[in-house]
Amino acid sequence: LYELKKTLGRGHFAVVKLAHHVFSGEKVAIKVIDKSKMDKVSADHLYHEVTCMKLVQHPNVVKLYQVIETASKLYLILELGDGGDMFDYIMRHERGLHEDHAKEYFAQIVSAIAYCHKLHVVHRDLKPENVVFFESQGLVKLTDFGFSNRYKPGEKLSTSCGSLAYSAPEILLGEEYDAPAVDVWSLGVILYMLVCGIAPFNEANDSETLINIMDCRYTVLDHVSSACQDLIQRMIIKEPSERIGLNDIITHPWLKGAKSLGRARRNSTPILTRNVISDELHQEILGRMVAGE
């Protein structure tokens, strides 16, 4: 069905390829996963990635079109962006983007996460590298749900995951944590990078970065507006219970007038709720994936 082309990226047990459909010519990204290299943990992450991406159907989330499985490989057929990722875009803008542009991009990311949380899906790896530009559609879209999971409101999660520079202190401490709050912290880091052009916790080594995250020690650059500074400082707070919630982010004065928020409200109610499979079937699927069946 698909002809594989150049390699777009590599991971521990997967490679992402550019491909096109042999009949329609449509370009897609295909994540090719070598099942023989997967252990139970990586199989679990893959299971959650597929489950959550199929569940979260939103204009600002990369579409998972199809999953194809062979004896040794698993192929995830994904929507292909045409403008690179947000990290590279930010790095081309010293001292950050103009706030009007940052506002529209950030509103789209917030729209996607607000929708995820309504479905009780937490991303847990929010960072500019996982936001892709779709310039032909005028959109940015969230991708890489490898650390995502379903959660029950009021119950805490315990898995330590994500990327150091974007992870909330409670995850790094290995504590049980409130799922929505860790995504809010990461959203704050993304907004900081959009308007400042650098990461808030960007030290010479991981040890120093970790110390500054744990102390919540960062400085917003002087050129950032007071309204934007206020929003950042209400997201990047050490105490999870004191962080601003998604609804309050959407209604924050700094985001007033963002065109993307109109779309966010129109897409705020899930079209349907899908059943979650039983734990027994989950374990059976994981076992088969690890065994390469």
Share in helix: 25-40%
CA-based shape: globular
- β-strand percent reads 15-25%
Series of secondary-structure elements, N-terminal to C-terminal: EEEHEEHHEEEEHHHHHHH
Cofactor: Mg(2+)
Catalytic activity: L-seryl-[protein] + ATP = O-phospho-L-seryl-[protein] + ADP + H(+); L-threonyl-[protein] + ATP = O-phospho-L-threonyl-[protein] + ADP + H(+)
GO molecular function: ATP binding; metal ion binding; protein serine/threonine kinase activity
Protein name: SNF-related serine/threonine-protein kinase
Short description:
The chain folds into 2 domains: 2-80 and 266-291, Phosphorylase Kinase, domain 1 (2-Layer Sandwich); 84-262, Transferase(Phosphotransferase) domain 1 (Transferase(Phosphotransferase), domain 1), CATH 1.10.510.
Can you lay out the helices and strands and say which pair or pack?
Blueprint: E1 2-10, E2 14-21, E3 27-34, H1 40-55, E4 64-69, E5 73-78, H2 86-91, H3 99-118, E6 121-122, E7 131-134, E8 139-142, E9 149-150, H4 169-172, H5 179-196, H6 206-215, H7 226-235, H8 246-250, H9 259-266, H10 279-291
Antiparallel strand pairs: 1-2, 2-3, 3-5, 4-5, 6-9, 7-8
Helix pairs in contact: 1-10, 3-5, 3-9, 5-7
Cofactor: Mg(2+)
Protein name: SNF-related serine/threonine-protein kinase
Catalytic activity: L-seryl-[protein] + ATP = O-phospho-L-seryl-[protein] + ADP + H(+); L-threonyl-[protein] + ATP = O-phospho-L-threonyl-[protein] + ADP + H(+)
